[in-house]
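Incident log, structure service

09:12 report received: a user says their structure output differs between two submissions of the same chain.
09:20 pulled the input from the user's history:
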Amino acid sequence: MSLTVINLDTPTLGDRSYIAHDGKTALAVDPQRDIDRVQAILDREGLTLGGVVETHMHNDYVSGGLVLAHEHGAKYIVSEMDPVTFERVTVADKQIETIGDFAVQAIHTPGHTFTHMSYALLDDAQKAHGVFTGGSMLHGSTGRPDLLGLDKARELAGLQHGSLNRLAEMLEDGVNVHPTHGFGSFCAATATCGDSSTIADEKKTNPALLLEKEAYIVQTLAGLDVFPAYYKHMGPANHAGPGPIDLSELARMSTEEVMKAMKAGAWIVDLRTRSSWAAAHVPGTMSFGIDGSMATYFGWMFPYEKQLVLMSDKASDIAEAQRELVRIGIDRPSGSFVGDVAEFGESKSTRAVSFKDVPAVIGTPGVHVLDVRRASEREASHIEPSLHIPLHELEGRVNELPTDGEIWVHCAGAYRAAAALGIIEDSKRTAVLINEPYDACLTVDGLNIVTGHMDAGPVSPSDVTANA
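09:34 re-ran on a clean worker, output below:
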C-alpha cells in the first residue's frame, strides 16, 4: 500500500499539521483552526476524511480538530488521559485506530505534556511508514517541558528523555518523523534542524538520544527561553472544545469611529509594512506588519480583554490578520479601517536609520540604543553600550527609558523594533527605527559587539528573517 503524507505549514507560528492518506481516505493530524486549508487539500486530492487526531492539547494555538471532525462525521482521536468533556474517540497506549485501509497506533510519549501521544502511521500490513510526534521528538530537538509550570519541568524533561528513547527502540530506522513543532515554534526546547528526518537521523543528532538522562535534563532546562504570554489562553481553549470560526469581513469603521475607539482604550493595529508605518502613521497606533510573525508577537503583547481595531491600506491585509488571530483565539476584532492614513488628517513619521549610522552617535547624550530582543538573544551577541528591554516587557517598563534625546530601537530583524516604536512614542519619547537585521551590525566598523555563550534557545520564524 502507498501512503502519502502532506505537510500543512503555519510558518508564522512555527507549526506543521499533516494530512495522511491512502488515495481515498485521509487523516488530519493537529490541524490549525482555519480548517478551510484542510478542506482545500481534501477537495484537491479527492479524499474523504476518516479521522482527525490530536497529539496533545496544544499550548501555542487553538485547534480546529473538533470542528473539522464534526463537519465530516470523522473520528476525533484524543488521548484517554486528556480531561475533556466533548465527544471524541479516546485512545490508550499502543491502541490502534483504523482510518480507511490504514491505521495509526497511539504511543504514550509524555514530556511536552503528561498525556502526550505520538501516532505511528501503519499500512494494511501494520508496517510503520512514519510517526506523528507532535511536541515529543522534533527534528534534532524535543518539545519544551515547562509549559505546564516550572515546578513540573524537571519531571517532564525526564519523561521526555524516556519517550524519545522509547520511540527510537519501537520504530525502525527508516520511519519518517513528522513533528508538529520545531519549525520556529516556541514550543521547541532548543533550536531544531532540517525540514525532514527519520528515526536514524534522530539517533545521530537528537540530544535526548545522545545524552544520559540527567545530562539531557540539565541541558534542556538550561536552554529554555521565555515563551509568548498568549500561551496561557490556548490550553484552556483546547480543553473546552473550540467552536467554529467566522472569517467574514469585519465591519468597516470611519476615521472618527477609529479615533473614538482609541480614546476608549482600544488597540489600533496598523498591518502595513514597518517602512510604510514609519513613513506615515496615525499617532497612537502600533505597527504589527502582516508581512512578519504578526500573531506571535501581537498575541504576546495584547491584553485579550481589550478592544481591537485593525487598519491597513489593503483589505487583503485585514483578512490575513483575521486568519492569523483566530489561530490564537482572537476571534472577532471590533472592526477595521481600510484606506490611506492621510484620511485621518493628522499623521506622524518616524525616522528610520541603518546600523552604519550608529557608530557616529552611540554613547552621545542625544542617542540611546535600545535592544528589544529576548535576553537569550542579547546574551549571544549585543552592542555596547545599549539599553535592553525585551519587547514583551516594554509596555510595563517604558518609564525606565531616558526622557532626553532619541531612542534608537533594534531587534533581530526590525519587526519587533517597529512594534516597540508605538509604545515609546506614546510615552512622549522620540523613537528612531534601526530598520535592518541585527546581523548587519556585525560588519560595521566602530561598533563594540559583545558575545556570550548562552544557548539562544528556540528560534521564532521572524528571528531568522528580516521581519524580526
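09:41 both user submissions now match this output. Likely a transient worker issue. Closing.
09:42 reviewer note: Residues 408 and 432 are 5 Å apart (CA to CA). The two ends are 44 Å apart (CA to CA).
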